[in-house]
């Protein structure tokens, strides 16, 4: 029985769309595309307003084979990864500090909450002034948007630690570092990965916002360029590549979570 349970827990992870659970999503996507195609043809919608899915698909293929999209895709991808890494370090560091210290919680958390209420789009011009038009300003913008979900989930994970386990470690005269690594950290990991799943998508949004404000390269900049010449099919093509990037990054985080924190899942995350 033990061997069977272990095998079930450690079974190979597969993306949701390769399992029966992903079948409804695939069906809904096909139906939505069919309705889109039929609506455009039935109501004779101009291509400069909403292009047909077939037109968008042709443009996606053209962008790929021409090699035009790949440099922009790579630049945005690097901005997202760098910004997300910064958000993880900052979110985990502050989250652990606040979660373990009520005094620091009372002193710092209200300030962080106040900062979170500021629209990040309003900060983007300042980041351009401070960090320039290159990678740094986009990565910082991505980090600022992705930071808060990670912070909140780390704090929530630490605050929901089973008190009985803490009492047991105390009775065993465990050192604070042992308590953290043996009890608090394992209990926090499911919450952390819930925050990371949201944070990686927010990092992508932050990078695009930064490119909208000031950049000549990247997928966000490409959207602005094509919007200026009313290339709607081209804009839809870039949006499709953005969706692919976001999906792949989210699946990567889910894969790491399934290998790292497979024993437990948090009830309801705080990212709303």
UniProtKB/TrEMBL annotation:
<dbReference type="InterPro" id="IPR035906">
    <property type="entry name" value="MetI-like_sf"/>
</dbReference>
<feature type="transmembrane region" description="Helical">
    <location>
        <begin position="233"/>
        <end position="257"/>
    </location>
</feature>
<keyword id="KW-0812">Transmembrane</keyword>
<feature type="transmembrane region" description="Helical">
    <location>
        <begin position="73"/>
        <end position="96"/>
    </location>
</feature>
<feature type="transmembrane region" description="Helical">
    <location>
        <begin position="139"/>
        <end position="158"/>
    </location>
</feature>
<feature type="transmembrane region" description="Helical">
    <location>
        <begin position="108"/>
        <end position="133"/>
    </location>
</feature>
<feature type="transmembrane region" description="Helical">
    <location>
        <begin position="21"/>
        <end position="43"/>
    </location>
</feature>
<keyword id="KW-1133">Transmembrane helix</keyword>
<dbReference type="InterPro" id="IPR000515">
    <property type="entry name" value="MetI-like"/>
</dbReference>
<keyword id="KW-1003">Cell membrane</keyword>
<feature type="domain" description="ABC transmembrane type-1">
    <location>
        <begin position="73"/>
        <end position="257"/>
    </location>
</feature>
<dbReference type="Pfam" id="PF00528">
    <property type="entry name" value="BPD_transp_1"/>
</dbReference>
<comment type="similarity">
    <text>Belongs to the binding-protein-dependent transport system permease family.</text>
</comment>
<keyword id="KW-0472">Membrane</keyword>
<feature type="transmembrane region" description="Helical">
    <location>
        <begin position="191"/>
        <end position="213"/>
    </location>
</feature>
<protein>
    <submittedName>
        <fullName>ABC transporter permease</fullName>
    </submittedName>
</protein>
<keyword id="KW-0813">Transport</keyword>
């Amino acid at each position: 029985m033990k061997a069977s349970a272990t095998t079930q827990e450690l079974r190979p992870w597969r993306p949701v769309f390769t399992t029966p659970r992903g079948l409804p999503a695939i069906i809904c996507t096909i139906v939505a595309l069919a309705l889109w195609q039929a609506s455009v043809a039935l109501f004779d919608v101009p291509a400069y307003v909403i292009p047909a899915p077939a037109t968008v698909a042709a443009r996606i293929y053209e962008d790929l084979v021409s090699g035009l999209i790949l440099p922009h895709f790579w630049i945005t991808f690097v901005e997202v990864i760098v910004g997300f890494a910064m958000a993880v370090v900052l979110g985990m560091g502050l989250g652990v500090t606040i979660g373990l210290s009520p005094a620091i919680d009372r002193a710092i958390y209200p300030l962080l909450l106040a900062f979170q209420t500021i629209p990040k789009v309003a900060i983007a011009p300042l980041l351009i002034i401070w960090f320039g038009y290159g990678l740094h300003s986009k990565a910082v913008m991505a980090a600022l948007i992705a930071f808060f979900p990670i912070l909140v989930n780390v704090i929530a994970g630490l605050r929901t630690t089973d008190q009985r386990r803490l009492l047991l470690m105390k009775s065993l005269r465990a050192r604070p570092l042992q308590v953290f690594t043996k009890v608090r950290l394992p209990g926090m990991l499911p919450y952390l990965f819930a925050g990371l799943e949201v944070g990686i998508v927010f990092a992508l949004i932050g990078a695009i916002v930064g490119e909208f404000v000031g950049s000549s390269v990247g997928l966000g900049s490409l959207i602005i360029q094509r919007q200026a010449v009313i290339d709607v099919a081209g804009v839809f093509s870039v949006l499709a590549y953005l969706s692919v990037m976001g999906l792949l990054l989210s699946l990567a985080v889910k894969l790491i979570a399934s290998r790292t924190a497979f024993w437990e899942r948090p009830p309801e995350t705080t990212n709303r």
